[in-house]
Specification:
The complex is a heterodimer of chains A (405) and B (512).
Chain A (H helix, E strand, L loop, with lengths): L22 H5 L12 H9 L21 H5 L6 H16 L3 H7 L1 H10 L1 H7 L3 H11 L15 H7 L7 E6 L1 H6 L2 H13 L2 E4 L8 H5 L3 H20 L4 E4 L2 H13 L7 H5 E3 H10 L12 E5 L3 H6 L5 H5 L5 E5 L15 H10 L1 H10 L3 E3 L3 H11 L3 E2 L1 H8 L3
Parallel strand pairs in A: 1-2, 1-3, 3-4, 5-6, 5-7, 7-8
Helix pairs in contact in A: 2-4, 6-7, 11-22
Chain B lengths: L5 E4 L3 H12 L4 E4 L15 E2 L10 H17 L4 E2 L3 E5 L5 H14 L4 E3 L1 H7 L9 E5 L2 E3 L1 H14 L3 E3 L3 E8 L2 E9 L2 E6 L2 E4 L5 H7 L6 E11 L7 E4 L8 E5 L2 E5 L3 E3 L9 H14 L8 E12 L14 E5 H5 L4 E6 L5 H16 L23 H10 L5 E3 L4 E2 H5 L11 H8 L11 H11 L8 H16 L5 H17 L9
Parallel strand pairs in B: 1-2, 1-13, 2-9, 5-15, 13-21
Antiparallel strand pairs in B: 3-8, 4-8, 5-7, 6-7, 10-11, 11-12, 14-17, 14-18, 14-19, 15-16, 16-17, 20-21, 22-23
Helix pairs in contact in B: 1-5, 1-9, 2-3, 13-14
The chains are: A alpha/beta (405), B alpha+beta (512).
Chain lengths: 405, 512
C-alpha cells in the first residue's frame, strides 16, 4: 500500500499557543534538578521563536531535555513542548552531530540480537568492571548505569512457534526490542494474560519503534523503521485485529504519536488503535468481558507510573487491576520521574543527572520497602532496580503468576 | 547649560539625525523629546530600510533618495540594519503591466533588481503564497528604528550634544518676532534654554508647536496601522507587485513579522484608534502574501502617523509625496530663528538631517560641510546587529533567575547596561525601546514585574510610585494588544489580567 505523506510538521508553527504560564517548568524533572537546562518553556516555545533557517544552533543544553513529556502533559495550552525539543535536537544534531554514546545506545536494536545469541558471553561481559570502564572511556556509556541482561531465548523465537487459540477478541502485540532480547518473560506474561482474558494474540513482523532514535533527533532512520511497522500493523488491522497492544509505554508513544506528529509519516489507522496492555484490559472490563480468576498471591508492591504512560493519556490502569488479586497490596509511588528516560540515564554525560532526578523515586521506595516495584516501562524498571536494589517487574508478570489456570 | 547654538525639538529619527549632524559640525546642540527617543512616528513605522522599489513607479525622486540613502545607512550603521534583502512578488490578479513598469522604474532610479522564478522565490521563502507568478529580488532591509535613533543620539552626545528625553517643550521664547529659545518641562519642573536657531523636528506634534510661534505648517497626518505577528514568516522583506496600497508589505523584525499598512487621514497624532476594518484588511492581505497569516498568532497592533507635507490641495495619504522639505520660517513666515523639517521617511532621515543642518549652519553663519554620509555611527568595530541566534545563545550564558524578559531573552545585565540612559526617570518603556523587554508573546506579562524590581534594586524608583511605573507600562502594552484580543493573545491577556489586576490588584490601583 502506498503511503500518502503530507508535508512534515514544522516546529516553527507549534509555539504560538504558549501563554508563558510556566507550568511546564514546575513539571520538568530536569529543570527541577539542574540549572544547566533552561527548562521546557525557554528551551521549547521560547527558543523556537529564535531558531532560524540556516542560522547557528544553540548550545548543547538542548540535549539535556530527557524527552519525558511531562511538560507537554502539563501544558494547559496544548503546546507540543516535548516535540519542539525533538525538532530542536534534530536541528542541533544536523549541525553538530551526535556523540558516540547516543549513536550506540539509540542503535541498541542492532546489537541486541547478537547479544541475545551470545548471551552466555554478553551478559557477563556487561557486568565486568573493566569492560564497563572501557565502555565509558571509549563510548561514553556510564560505567555505573544499569544495563540489561540478555535472554537465552528471544521473544520472537517464542512468538514464531506460539499459536494463540482463536477467541472472540483478537489483538496484534507489539512487544518491542527490550522484551524481545532482554525480557521475553514479560512478553510471555502479556500473552498469557491476554489469552486468559479470551483474546487471540498475533505477532506481526516488527522492527524497533525508534523511540530512542526519535529522542536523539535521528528522524531519518526512525522513519524507515516505523514506515515498515505501520505497514505491518495496518495489515494486522486488516486481518481483524481490533487493537495493537503494546507492553512498553515508550514504544506505544512512538507508534501512536511520534510516528505521525514528529516523523510526519502521514495518516495511519494504527495511531488510534495503539493501546497499552492495561488500558486494553480495562476496556474489556468496562465492557463486562474481563473474567479472570486469581489465586491468593501475597505481595507488597509499589507501582511506578512511567512518564510515557502518562503521556499516552489513557491513564494508569494497572494498580486497580492488580488490587483485585487477593493478597496483593499496591501502593502508587507518585514520586515523579525515575530519570532514566530511554538513553538519558545510560550516557555518562547525563547519568548523574538521571540519578539525581530519580532520587525522589528511590527515596520513596527505600521508605516503603516493597517486595517489588512494578512499572510497564523497562527503562524505569532498570533504573529503579539500579537506584534501590529492589527488584522491578512488569505488572503483567504479577498478573500472569496469579492466574488460576 | 541653558545656552546652545541650536535647539532641536523632537527625538524621533529626524531630530536625532539633525542633532548628530550638527554635533559633528561642531554646533552645540540641545535635543528635547517629550517622551522617549523614537516614541512617535519613528517607533511606529515598519522598520523598513527602503530600497526605493516601492516608489519606483509613482515617485521617482523618492525612489532615488531611498536607494542612495539605503546604501549610506548600511555603511554607517551596519549594526542597526539586518541585511535581509527583499522580494517583490506578483500574485494572480495583480496588473501584469505593473511588473514591467516597476523594472523600468528600478533601472531609472538605479535600484538593483533581479528576476527570480516562482520556484526559486519559494525555495528562499517557503511560507510565501505558492501561487505567486513572478518575483524580483531587491535590496530592501530591515532596520531597528529605536536603535537607529538611539545610536544617532549617542553619537551626538559623544560630540557634545545634550539629549533630554521626557522633556516637553511648552512654548517658545520670543524676542519680537524671532524665536530665541524654548521653555520646557520635565519631572523636576520648568526650564528655559536659548539658542539662535530652533529646529522643529516633531513630526505630527510639530503643528501645534509651530502655531505657538505664529507659523502654519501644512501637514497631512496619514495614519498607518500595522500588525506584529508572533512568528517570522519570511527572512526577506516582501513587497506586493502593485501600486502602493494597504497591507502590501511584510517585514521580518527579529523573531516577528510586521504587516502594514493602512492609510487613513487623521486630525491628531495622539489617541490613534485602530479600527477593526483595518485589521481585517491587514490580516487578509497578509494571508494573500503568506497564507500562514490566516491562522497565526497576532501579538499586537500599532499605528503611527506619517506627517506628510502638504502646503495646499487635497490629495489623500497615498497621493502625497514622500519627499521632505526644510522650511526656513524667517523667509517663509517672517519668524527668524525657527526652522522646520517636515515630510520624508525613516530611510532618508540622514539626508533630511543634512539638509536641515545645512540650513541651520547658514543661519548661524558657519561654513562647515556635513560629513554624516561617510562617518560611521560608531567608531571602530560596531556591535553586530541583533540576530536571533545571539539571543538564543543567551540561554546558555544566563544564570537562572537572571533572565528578566524570557520571551525576548533579555537578561539583567543587558538592562543594567542601558540604565544610565534613562535620564533619571524610571520608565519600563524606555527599557523596552533599548532591550526589547516586553516585546514578546506575553507582552510584559512576566517581565514587567521583574523589570520593576530591577529598577527598584538600582535605586531608580526612589520617591516615585512603583505602581504608577508598572501600570503605565502595562497600559501601554495593553493599548497594542486590545485591537488583536482574540485567540492565543486573548488567553495570554487573560493570564496577565489574572496576575496584575486580580492577584496584585493593579486594576485602577495605580495612579498613573
Amino acid at each position: 500500500m502506498k503511503r500518502f505523506i503530507p508535508e512534515p510538521r514544522r516546529p516553527e508553527t507549534l509555539f504560538d499557543p504558549c501563554i508563558k504560564c510556566t507550568i511546564c517548568v514546575s513539571a520538568c524533572p530536569v529543570a527541577q534538578t539542574t540549572a544547566t537546562f533552561p527548562g521546557p518553556k525557554q528551551a521549547g516555545p521560547d527558543a523556537q521563536r529564535f531558531r532560524g533557517r540556516g542560522e547557528p544552533v544553540e548550545g548543547p543544553w538542548i540535549n539535556l531535555c530527557s524527552g519525558c513529556y511531562r511538560c507537554q502533559v502539563a501544558c494547559p495550552a496544548d503546546v507540543p513542548i516535548a516535540e519542539i525539543n525533538l525538532f530542536a535536537k534534530q536541528r542541533y544534531a544536523a549541525e553538530k552531530g551526535r556523540d558516540v554514546a547516543t549513536e550506540l545506545l539509540t542503535h541498541a536494536h542492532w546489537f541486541n540480537p547478537w547479544g541475545q545469541r551470545f548471551h552466555w558471553f554478553a551478559t557477563p561481559l556487561l557486568r565486568m568492571k573493566w569492560a564497563r570502564w572501557l565502555a565509558e572511556k571509549l563510548f561514553g556509556v556510564d560505567r555505573r548505569a544499569p544495563l540489561p541482561t540478555f535472554a537465552r531465548e528471544s521473544f520472537r523465537t517464542f512468538a514464531r512457534r506460539h499459536e494463540s487459540p482463536r477467541a472472540k477478541h483478537k489483538v496484534a502485540y507489539f512487544y518491542g526490542c527490550f522484551t524481545d532480547s532482554n525480557a521475553p518473560e514479560v512478553g510471555r506474561a502479556v500473552v498469557k494474560v491476554l489469552e486468559a482474558a479470551g483474546v487471540e494474540v498475533i505477532f506481526p513482523v516488527q522492527q524497533c519503534c525508534g523511540a530512542a532514535l526519535i529522542g536523539a533527533g535521528n528522524f531519518d532512520r526512525a522513519r524507515r523503521q516505523d514506515a515498515a511497522n505501520l505497514a505491518a500493523f495496518e495489515q494486522a488491522l486488516d486481518q481483524g485485529a481490533e487493537a495493537i497492544v503494546v507492553g512498553s509505554p515508550s514504544c506505544a508513544l512512538a507508534l501512536s504519536h511520534e510516528t505521525g506528529e514528529v516523523l510526519g509519516l502521514g495518516h495511519s489507522a494504527v495511531y488510534s488503535r495503539v493501546v497499552d496492555l492495561f488500558t486494553y484490559l480495562h476496556r474489556l472490563d468496562e465492557a463486562g468481558e474481563l473474567n479472570l480468576k486469581w489465586k491468593e498471591t501475597p505481595l507488597h508492591a509499589a507501582y511506578h507510573e512511567a512518564c510515557h504512560l502518562t503521556a499516552l493519556g489513557f491513564g494508569a490502569h494497572a494498580p486497580a487491576l492488580l488490587r483485585r488479586i487477593p493478597g496483593v497490596q499496591v501502593r502508587v509511588l507518585d514520586a515523579g520521574c525515575c530519570g532514566l528516560a530511554g538513553t538519558y540515564g545510560l550516557k555518562h554525560k547525563t547519568a548523574d543527572l538521571a540519578r539525581q532526578i530519580g532520587a525522589g523515586v528511590a527515596r520513596r521506595v527505600a521508605e516503603w520497602r516493597p517486595d517489588v516495584v512494578l512499572s510497564e516501562c523497562e527503562g524505569c524498571r532498570m533504573q529503579i532496580e539500579h537506584l534501590t536494589g529492589v527488584p522491578a517487574k512488569h505488572p503483567a508478570e504479577v498478573l500472569a503468576d496469579a492466574l488460576v489456570e | 547649560m541653558d545656552r546652545f547654538d541650536a535647539i532641536v525639538i523632537g527625538g524621533g529619527i529626524t531630530g536625532c539625525g539633525v542633532a548628530r549632524d550638527l554635533a559633528l559640525r561642531g554646533v552645540g546642540v540641545l535635543l528635547l523629546e517629550q517622551h522617549d527617543l523614537a516614541h512617535g512616528a519613528t517607533g511606529r513605522c515598519h522598520g523598513l530600510l527602503h530600497s526605493g522599489v516601492r516608489y519606483a513607479v509613482k515617485d521617482p525622486i523618492a525612489a532615488q533618495e531611498c536607494i542612495s540613502e539605503n546604501r549610506i545607512v548600511r555603511r554607517i550603521a551596519p549594526h542597526c540594519v539586518e541585511l535581509t534583502g527583499g522580494l517583490v512578488i506578483e500574485l494572480p490578479g495583480d496588473d501584469p503591466a505593473y511588473y514591467h513598469q516597476l523594472r523600468r522604474g528600478c533601472d531609472e532610479a538605479g535600484i538593483e533588481h533581479r528576476a527570480l522564478s516562482p520556484a526559486d522565490a519559494l525555495e528562499l521563502e517557503p511560507n510565501l503564497n505558492p501561487r505567486l507568478t513572478r518575483a524580483l529580488s531587491v535590496p530592501d532591509a530591515s532596520v531597528d528604528p529605536f536603535l537607529l535613533s538611539q545610536e544617532n543620539a549617542r553619537a551626538a552626545e559623544r560630540h557634545g550634544a545634550i539629549i533630554r528625553t521626557h522633556s516637553a517643550v511648552i512654548d517658545f521664547i520670543r524676542d519680537g518676532a524671532a524665536v530665541t529659545g524654548v521653555r520646557f518641562a520635565d519631572d523636576e519642573g520648568e526650564h528655559e534654554a536659548r539658542a539662535p536657531v530652533t529646529v522643529l523636528a516633531a513630526g505630527g506634534w510639530g503643528m501645534p508647536l509651530a502655531a505657538k510661534a505664529g507659523v502654519r505648517v501644512g501637514l497631512s497626518l496619514s495614519k498607518g496601522s500595522l500588525v506584529i505577528m508572533n512568528r517570522r514568516f519570511c527572512d526577506r522583506v516582501i513587497n506586493r507587485c502593485r501600486l502602493p496600497a494597504d497591507a502590501d508589505l511584510v517585514i521580518p523584525n527579529g523573531p516577528t513579522s510586521i504587516i502594514g499598512t493602512t492609510s487613513i487621514t487623521v486630525a491628531s497624532p495622539d489617541g490613534l484608534v485602530i479600527e477593526p476594518r483595518e485589521l481585517a484588511v491587514l490580516l487578509a492581505e497578509g494571508a494573500a502574501l503568506a497564507p500562514g497569516f490566516a491562522t497565526a498568532r497576532a501579538l499586537r497592533s500599532y499605528a503611527g502617523v506619517r506627517p506628510l507635507f502638504q502646503e495646499s490641495g487635497d490629495a489623500d495619504g497615498r497621493g502625497i509625496t514622500r519627499g521632505f522639505f526644510v522650511l526656513n520660517h524667517a523667509t517663509r513666515d517672517g519668524v527668524p530663528g525657527l526652522v522646520s523639517i517636515v515630510g520624508g521617511k525613516l530611510t532618508t532621515y540622514r539626508l533630511m538631517a543634512e539638509k536641515t543642518a545645512d540650513q541651520v549652519c547658514e543661519l548661524l553663519g558657519r561654513r562647515v560641510a556635513g560629513r554624516t554620509s561617510d562617518t560611521p555611527l560608531r567608531e571602530g568595530e560596531p556591535a553586530p546587529f541583533y540576530h536571533r541566534y545571539e539571543r538564543l545563545a543567551r540561554l546558555a550564558t544566563t544564570k537562572p533567575g537572571e533572565m528578566v524578559c524570557e520571551c525576548e531573552m533579555v537578561p539583567r545585565e543587558a538592562i543594567r547596561a542601558i540604565l544610565s540612559e534613562l535620564h533619571g526617570r524610571p520608565d519600563l518603556a524606555d527599557v523596552q525601546h533599548r532591550t526589547r523587554l516586553g516585546m514578546g508573546p506575553c507582552q510584559g506579562g512576566l517581565c514587567s514585574y521583574r523589570g520593576l524590581a530591577l529598577l527598584h534594586d538600582e535605586g531608580l524608583l526612589a520617591g516615585g510610585s512603583p505602581a504608577a511605573v508598572i501600570t503605565r507600562f502595562l497600559d501601554q502594552r495593553f493599548g497594542g494588544i486590545a485591537p488583536v484580543l482574540w485567540g492565543d493573545q486573548l488567553r495570554e491577556e487573560a493570564l496577565n489580567y489574572a496576575f496584575y489586576a486580580t492577584l496584585f490588584g493593579l486594576d485602577r490601583g495605580g495612579d498613573a
